[in-house]
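Private note to self, pasted from the team thread so I don't lose it. Backbone tokens:
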């Protein structure tokens, strides 16, 4: 296994050199959680699963900030780029200074410049006035956290999240967040705009200047939580990628397909679909 990892690591340098020769070379990444799922479904080690994903052509990864150090070491040894870290901090429930510091410390220590913040959910019941009060307080906490991170040279992002009680569910709720904090950036999730019934390309036009990371997720239908392999649903993935590139986006494109029962095959299919956009 160690020899296999070494050989793949050697290939990484070749891929990096090849990528530098093309101005349109894609930076395609995947969730570390998906690699865990592959290991479980294929009954192989995390290291073997990561090696197979790397061989497909994925060059980056999104990880939770509390990922096991041993898994992080495997990903780094295979040359996976640090696409985006992820943290769930429930700012709707109050301040979480200790959690904030743990997240920022991880980013600084391990070299992850971007963080996707999932900031909690509004109550399922209560008066409109009380819920709006909770929302306002949470937004202020998020803005303060983004400022703190920026002072340390780190980037905090929020995505359109597929839950109606999220602080960043749709365009209006995201607008309210971004209005409160000029430091916040956007993780543009293609599937979640479809989920909430909004126009994906219209949302991209609206937020394009502040998009700093992208999640490529397909959907079968609005309000359907299933995420098939990229290219097997209704999301205009090619048009999204083309529009981002035309607007100067040079960041990562992370494939997302939580819930897949054939993650290895779906990861390969998604990579080929996304990569083909860059070859045209």
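Design output:
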């Amino acid at each position: 296994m160690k020899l296999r990892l070494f050989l793949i690591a050697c290939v990484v340098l070749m891929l990096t050199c090849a990528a530098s020769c093309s101005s349109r070379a894609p930076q395609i990444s995947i969730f570390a959680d998906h690699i865990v799922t592959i290991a479980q479904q294929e009954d192989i080690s995390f290291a073997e699963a990561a090696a197979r994903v790397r061989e497909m052509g994925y060059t980056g990864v999104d990880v939770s900030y509390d990922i096991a150090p041993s898994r992080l070491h495997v990903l780094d040894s295979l040359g996976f780029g640090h696409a985006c870290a992820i943290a769930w901090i429930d700012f709707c429930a109050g301040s979480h200074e200790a959690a904030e510091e743990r997240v920022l410390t991880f980013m600084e220590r391990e070299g992850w410049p971007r963080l996707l913040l999932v900031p909690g959910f509004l109550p399922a019941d209560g008066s409109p006035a009380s819920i709006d009060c909770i929302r306002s307080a949470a937004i202020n906490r998020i803005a303060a956290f983004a400022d703190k991170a920026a002072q340390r040279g780190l980037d905090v992002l929020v995505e359109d999240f597929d839950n109606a009680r999220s602080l960043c569910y749709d365009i209006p709720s995201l607008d309210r967040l971004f209005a409160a904090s000029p430091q916040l950036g956007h993780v543009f999730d293609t599937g979640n705009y479809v989920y909430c019934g909004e126009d994906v390309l219209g949302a991209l036009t609206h937020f394009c200047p502040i998009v700093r990371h992208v999640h490529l997720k397909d959907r079968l239908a609005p309000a359907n939580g299933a995420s098939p392999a990229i290219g097997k649903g209704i999301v205009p993935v090619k048009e999204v990628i083309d529009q981002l590139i035309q607007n100067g986006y040079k960041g990562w494109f992370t494939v997302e397909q939580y819930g897949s029962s054939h993650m290895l095959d779906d990861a390969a299919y998604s990579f080929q679909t996304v990569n083909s956009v860059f070859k045209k």
